[in-house]
Amino acid sequence: MTTNLLRRKKDRIDDLAAAGGGTSLAADAFKRMSRSPIAIIGAVITALFVLLAILSPFIAPKDPHIPYDALKNNLRPDSIPGPMPGFILGSDQNGYDFFSRLLVGSQQTLIVGVVATLIGVVIGMIIGGLAGALGGWVDTLLMRLTDILLAIPSLLLAISIAALFSHGTQWTVIIAVAVVSVPIFARLLRGAMLAQRSSDHVLAATALGVRRGTIVFRHMLPNSVGPVIVQATLTLATSIIDAAALSFLGLGDSDWTRAEWGLMLGKSQGLLDVKPELAFYPAIAIIVVALGFTLLGESLREALDPKNRR
């Protein structure tokens, strides 16, 4: 029986070799994600959001930055016009077309989330890369600073950073949200590079006398960025939520003419009894988009985990 089992395993290996070998981790991950309903839902939501953000200035029925007389003339302290001919969702509190601002707001929301995440990734990778590559006192110093940031709740840290600026702008929100994500990426990349340091190919390159810089940039770093990319997808969701929270608390962009979901949500907090749709629609949009990025990121992380390969 043992002989037959070994023979079947050998035949299976021969068949795989004859067929051109196995599949790469990336190809296997994509195949598994294409069969996952959660991954598909997350990818569809994310793709629709990105597509809407790109096309919104062209498909918006009205100019989102111009107040219209048909809406302004019907504004009252206790009444904001609802749907009417030419204005699908009616007016906002300033006489702008609410539907057009909701569409264009997707672009600003995407810009805030992506730019904040990119800044966090770049700075975090620099810190984590230096700590993982150099080790010693550099590693100790950088990681202790990272631990200090991690010890503070993320939203509280973002609020504290945003409060340091005398005048809130869109860049205030981006910087505050980016700083919050820096220690996450730094810790993640540093841990991955430490794991790579003891791998066979790094030890072999070291034994052959390959320069330290070459080992770091050609062997350790390329094999360590995978988890960072996955985490960036998840961080996009939290960046959008944190940015909306700062705007809601009055620490975000004070330019009310800018169409951005978080800002729209923050400016409508005092109008829930007049027209709750001004807060409900941006809030629902933020929740759905954050859910899409979260589902896609979690599915990507599970698909790329070698432990899940069969």
Description of the structure:
It contains 13 helices and no strands. The protein has 310 residues and is mostly helical. The chain has a single domain, classed as MetI-like fold (Orthogonal Bundle), CATH 1.10.3720. Helix 11 packs antiparallel against helix 13. The longest helix is centred in the middle third of the chain and has 37 residues. It is elongated and about 80 Å long. The mean pLDDT is 81.
Can you tell me the CATH class?
A: Mainly Alpha
| CATH homologous superfamily heading | MetI-like
What would you call the shape?
elongated
Q: Helical content, roughly?
A: over 70%
Number of domains: 1
| CATH arch. level architecture | Orthogonal Bundle
What is the distance, rounded to the nearest whole angstrom, between the alpha carbons of the first and last residues?
24 Å
Could you tell me the CATH topology label: MetI-like fold
- The total beta strand count reads 0
Low-confidence stretches: none
What integer is the average pLDDT? 81
Order of helices and strands: HHHHHHHHHHHHH
% residues in beta strands: under 5%
Q: What Rg, in angstroms, do the CA atoms define?
A: 25 Å
What class do helices, strands and sheet pairing give?
A: mainly alpha
Number of contiguous helices = 13
